[in-house]
Design goal:
The complex is a heterodimer.
Chain A: E1 2-11, E2 14-24, E3 29-33, H1 40-47, E4 55-60, E5 63-64, H2 72-77, E6 79-82, H3 94-106, H4 110-123, H5 139-151, E7 157-161, H6 169-184, E8 188-192, H7 196-202, E9 205-210, E10 213-218, H8 220-225, H9 230-239
Parallel strand pairs in A: 3-8, 3-9, 6-7, 7-8
Antiparallel strand pairs in A: 1-2, 1-4, 4-5, 9-10
Chain B: H1 3-27, H2 29-61, H3 66-81, H4 84-99, H5 104-130, H6 133-141, H7 146-176, H8 188-199, H9 202-233
The chains are: A alpha/beta, B mainly alpha.
């Protein structure tokens, strides 16, 4: 579903990604872990071209998104993204946050878009919040709305960029619960996270990144119980 | 001659003049208010066109297209970097005659619009940049084009940010229209000047002119406060 071939990315003189290769299969849940500054988020942002790569190729469904000739807006409609800081539209209600993109981009009629949105709100457990504005929601609720907003475009892949890092501890669970349901439904997911419990339980595969490269990858059992790389061992000893 | 009668005498003259000055102002109030109406017309039209110019000027200033960027930068730099007084003279006497047969009123609106547009462009640019970066990213990540993201996500948020500085700009435009007196557009200031040269009641006439300007600007700023308060509760 996603193929990343030898991508490099620099911000000025700082090389953040130093040749990343990875694949994500359909229905696979891949968790990316690693210390901050290791390039995890940058990798995710490159996958939907919020950051342009300096070299290398990224394919989504055999379409090269790093090519100039690709209509990136079309691709992004199929790739949902959830951000650390939610980035809900503050001037729109919960429902409008979810219906905006389907209506404006796909031209779906309002009542149809609202049906989809209400169904998604039910899924993330926020049926009663459809008419409130984002500033009246808790962090966990905001993030669940953000997930519903991304799902409204019916993406083939969902990218999660540290979705629980900005949340109060007691709200982490409700967001992970929604993500877990999504994974069990067979959504293809790439999740940058510090939630090792989630990675172990839900992830099919775990990538450990450090200093701009993938140091080690394997099943959660391999990575968490029997890491081979010294860096992986030292990172896990600090976070587990 | 002792100084006492003189002071006494000048007081009499003063008070005599005061009554006379007040009468002049009262009698000529309709004349002054007609000028104020013209001031308001020039201001309203200039603000209207200035907002359109400013919206595009601000968007172009943020555009990746180098030509659009260069055009808006040159435009903004010129109109913010030279005095409005000079711009009025240059356009009315130097440039507009080559293009069209502009009356002082039309010329005043053109120059004030261009000037207002330059300042508004900077306000718009700052307003757009003040919207969190994540908003654009969220919109684009959903598959919106840059234009869709701007019109549905960024601009609706930017407009709340730009209201207070825009009201300031409108007040500045209203006051700055006094400069078009130089090309004989008969707005409030020129009417005041004409009145003054007929009666020489400087304090009364200019005082009245200042008061009329003040009433107009104060009304505008109260309107601005009202709009701000309404938006805060929204």
């Amino acid at each position: 579903m996603i193929r990343v071939i030898d991508i490099h990315k620099s911000f000025g003189k700082l090389e953040v990604l130093k040749g990343i290769n990875c694949r994500i299969a359909p229905r696979e849940v891949v968790c990316v872990i690693g210390p901050s500054g290791s390039g995890k988020s940058t990798l995710l942002r490159c996958i939907n071209q919020l950051e342009a790569v300096n070299s290398g190729q990224i394919f989504i469904d055999e379409q090269e998104i790093t090519s100039r000739h690709t209509d990136i807006n079309k691709i992004r409609q199929q790739v949902g993204m959830v951000f650390q800081l939610f980035n809900l539209f503050p001037h729109r209600t919960t429902l409008e946050n979810i219906t905006l993109a389907p209506m404006k981009i796909k031209g779906i009629p309002k009542d149809e878009a609202e049906d989809i949105a209400n169904e998604l709100l039910r899924k993330v457990g926020l049926t009663d919040k459809s008419s409130v504005y984002p500033n009246q929601l808790s962090g966990g609720q905001k993030q669940r709305v953000a997930i519903a907003r991304a799902l409204a475009m019916q993406p083939k892949v969902m990218l999660f960029d540290e979705p629980t890092s900005a949340l109060d501890p007691e709200m982490v669970g409700e967001v992970l619960e929604v993500m877990k349901d999504l994974a069990y439904e067979g959504m293809t997911m790439a999740v940058v996270t510090h939630e090792m419990g989630f990675a172990r339980e839900v992830g099919h595969r775990v990538l450990f990144m450090d200093e701009g490269i993938i140091m080690e990858e394997g099943t959660p059992a391999q990575i968490f119980d029997n890491p081979h790389n010294v860096r992986t061992q030292s990172f896990l000893s600090k976070v587990l | 001659m002792s100084p006492v009668p003189l002071i006494f005498g000048s007081n009499i003259i003063d008070s005599f003049l005061a009554i006379n000055g007040l009468q002049v102002v009262i009698k000529n109030l309709p004349y002054l208010l007609e000028g104020a109406v013209l001031t308001l017309q020039i201001t309203t039209l200039s603000v209207l066109f200035g907002m359109i110019l400013g919206l595009f000027g601000g968007l172009f200033k943020l555009a990746k297209n180098p030509i659009l960027y260069a055009i808006s930068t040159a435009y903004i730099d010129f109109f913010r970097g030279t005095p409005l007084y000079v711009q009025i003279l240059l356009l009315y006497f130097g440039i507009l005659p080559l293009l069209l047969d502009a009356t002082p009123f039309v010329a005043a609106v053109i120059v004030c619009s261009l000037n207002c547009g330059a300042y508004t462009a900077e306000i718009v640019r700052a307003g757009i940049q003040a919207v969190e970066k994540g908003q654009m990213e969220a919109a684009r990540s959903l598959g919106m084009t840059n234009r869709q993201a701007m019109s549905y996500v960024i601009l609706p948020q930017a407009y709340k940010i730009v209201i207070p500085p825009l009201i300031n700009e409108f007040i500045a435009v209203l006051k700055d229209t006094s400069l078009v007196a130089v090309i004989s557009a008969e707005e409030l200031t020129l009417r005041g000047k004409l009145l003054y040269s007929a009666y020489f009641e400087a304090a009364w006439i200019w005082g009245a002119v200042a008061l009329v300007y003040f009433i107009m600007t104060k009304t505008l700023s109260l309107l601005g406060d009202y709009v701000e308060r309404r938006m805060a509760t929204e």
